[in-house]
């Protein structure tokens, strides 16, 4: 037994503390504190984060929506952040491979079902896990996914890739496969694939484009529209239709809002018809959820797929089952990816250049709270990064 493995490891981290049950309406504040990691155990690896990518689940943590992750995990405080690139510092007993200095992304599926699909996520709802908002991390060696060495791409790009792109790979694989079970490629070689959301949606639409689909992404942000165009996906300004954000309660009580929404929805539906020459949308990637679900359904062709691995602005959707059966609309819901899917995504990204362009400004470790506020305010691009330790 290596005695070094028994020594405590000092680190610094931004902690999220449990809510008191009354702290609603405003996001939680992160607190920077020194702490000690537990001793390195068998099958574990000590790593240092190089770059992390701020993910949507981190925003949910700060808003304690849909859960207070601290209370869910039964812990007083937690360190969140499950996307980015780490460097191996030390191996525990029994670890094969993963030499010191190796760069890897962290596979976020900590608790898996019998078919290797993730149930709980590292540094989110999996108890005892410490995420990228720490200067040091201890993780199971099985959760390291080594990066290609050498790689054509930077550690910053791989950090942005780590969670969003692996999730997009898994979701697209199932969504596209589902559509092709209904309509084979020889009958419709170029399906229309539209979407709205964030970086995962963009990654997925880029995959659709690479599969020969007509890919369109909607946004109401000028900088994001430029990023979409640079990816090769057709960018469509959502603001041209008016307010497509549907509020059921307000629509029932505010006649002016209801009329304005109906006009926006009608304009959107017309645009879909025109751009697709009447075919409408075969696969709609909708990571926003409830407020845009009406507009999503208006865009669908018969034999269509609505697909998502997230619920940015609403967890519940409702539809008429009989209508959806008659129209053969399929609904695909996924959560992260299997290890093999993540490995396949990494290999495809390296070989084919399926890779994100990170936000221009990389936030320093001391800027984490400012980045959190900017993310919640919608004042970031598709792939906001933060630096934790130097690259060399």
Which stretches are low in confidence, meaning pLDDT under 50 for 5 or more residues running?
none
Major β-sheet, in short? 6 strands, antiparallel
Distance between the termini: 29 Å
Q: Could you tell me the strand content as a percent range?
A: 15-25%
Number of helical segments?
11
Overall geometry: globular
Proportion of helical residues: 25-40%
User: Care to count the β-strands?
Assistant: 17
Q: Provide the structure class.
A: alpha/beta
Mean pLDDT: 94
Spell out the helices and strands N to C. EEEHHEEEEEEEHEHEHEHHEHEHEHHE
The radius of gyration over CA amounts to: 22 Å
InterPro entries: GroES-like_sf, NAD(P)-bd_dom_sf
Summary keywords:
single chain; 392 residues; alpha/beta; six-stranded parallel beta sheet
Describe the protein's architecture and organization.
- InterPro entries: GroES-like_sf, NAD(P)-bd_dom_sf.
- Helices cover 32% and strands 24% of the residues.
- It has helices spanning 56-63, 69-73, 155-182, 199-210, 222-231, 248-253, 255-275, 293-298, 321-327, 339-352, 368-376, and strands spanning 9-17, 31-37, 44-53, 77-78, 84-91, 103-106, 109-112, 118-121, 137-140, 144-146, 192-196, 214-219, 234-237, 281-286, 300-308, 329-333, 385-387.
- The strands form 4 sheets. Strands 3, 5, 6, 9, 10 and 17 form a 6-stranded antiparallel sheet that branches.
- Helix 4 (199-210) links the parallel strand 11 and strand 12 (214-219).
- Helix 3 (155-182) packs across helix 10.
């Amino acid at each position: 037994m290596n005695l070094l493995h028994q020594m405590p490891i000092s680190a610094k981290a931004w902690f999220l503390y449990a809510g008191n049950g009354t702290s609603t309406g405003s996001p939680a504040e992160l607190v920077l504190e020194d702490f000690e990691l537990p001793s390195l155990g068998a099958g574990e690896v000590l790593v240092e984060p190089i770059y992390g990518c701020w993910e949507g689940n981190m925003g949910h943590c700060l808003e304690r929506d849909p859960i207070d992750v601290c209370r869910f995990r039964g812990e007083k405080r937690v360190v969140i952040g499950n996307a980015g690139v780490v460097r191996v510092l030390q191996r525990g007993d029994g670890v094969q491979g993963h030499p010191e200095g190796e760069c890897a992304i962290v596979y976020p599926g900590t608790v898996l079902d019998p078919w290797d699909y993730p149930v709980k996520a590292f540094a989110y709802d999996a108890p005892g896990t410490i995420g990228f908002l720490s200067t040091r991390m201890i993780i199971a060696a099985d959760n390291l996914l080594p990066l290609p060495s050498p790689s054509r791409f930077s550690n910053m790009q791989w950090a942005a890739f780590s969670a969003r792109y692996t999730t997009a790979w898994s979701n697209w694989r199932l969504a596209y496969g589902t559509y092709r079970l209904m309509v084979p490629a020889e009958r419709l070689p170029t399906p229309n694939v539209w979407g709205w959301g964030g970086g995962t949606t963009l990654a997925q639409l880029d995959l659709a484009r690479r599969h020969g689909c007509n890919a369109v992404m909607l946004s109401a942000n000028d900088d994001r529209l430029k990023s979409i165009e640079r990816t090769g996906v057709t960018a469509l300004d959502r603001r041209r239709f008016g307010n497509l954000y549907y509020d059921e309660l307000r629509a029932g009580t505010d006649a002016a809002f209801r009329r304005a929404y109906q006009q926006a929805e009608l304009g959107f539906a017309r645009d879909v018809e025109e751009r697709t020459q009447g075919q409408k949308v075969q696969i709609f990637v909708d990571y926003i959820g409830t407020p845009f679900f009406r507009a999503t359904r208006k865009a669908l062709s018969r034999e269509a797929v609505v697909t998502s691995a997230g619920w940015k602005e609403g967890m519940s959707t409702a539809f008429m089952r009989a209508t959806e059966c008659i129209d053969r609309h399929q609904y695909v819901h996924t959560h992260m990816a299997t290890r093999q899917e993540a490995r396949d995504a990494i290999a495809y990204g390296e070989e084919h250049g399926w890779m994100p362009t990170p936000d221009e400004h990389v936030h320093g470790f001391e800027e984490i709270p400012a980045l959190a506020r900017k993310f919640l305010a919608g004042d970031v691009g598709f792939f906001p990064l933060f630096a934790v330790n130097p690259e060399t």
